[in-house]
Write a structure and sequence with these properties.
Layout (H helix, E strand, L loop, with lengths): L2 H8 L2 H12 L8 H11 L3 H30 L3 H27 L9 H11 L2 H10 L4 H16 L13
Helix pairs in contact: 1-2, 2-4, 3-4, 4-5, 4-7, 4-8, 5-6, 6-8
Length: 171
Amino acid sequence: MSVETIYKQFGSKAGLVRAVYDRALLGDAPVPAYRRADAAGLSETDPYRLVKQWAALAIEVTPRVAPVLLLVRAAAATAPELAALWDELEERRLTRMSENAQHLVDRGQLRPTCSPKRARDVLWAYTSPELYERLVVRQGWSLIEFGRFICDGMTASLLPRPRPERLETMH
């Protein structure tokens, strides 16, 4: 495929990278991951199961999305167009985490000492490409270990009391 064809289709490097990122966010199942996250947020009444579902979706999508985000972050240092894309993608991620946190707020399921902004930031941090890179890519954690870690961390930070069961059933 020629460079001209790519630019006609995507408009720019940033447009191409945005398309790759958006495709990565869909996940593996027939229903896109973001739709499954939305459905879980609306239908799941147990906040512990909801956080577990978010962790499962994170370990499905993060191996695809994190490399794209980390590439954009690295390129942003020298390419203004990709710096703007980095800001856009991080803002989208932060907005998404605000929506997820709001599900807990709306049902009164958030730890009393945790503000909605703190909940958003916790979700944003635990699902960051940097955390995935450090633990999975650099330290060799399995996706299951990573999923348990982020589920345990989000649960402990966001929900009213620790739940004794772990993520043993996460696949």
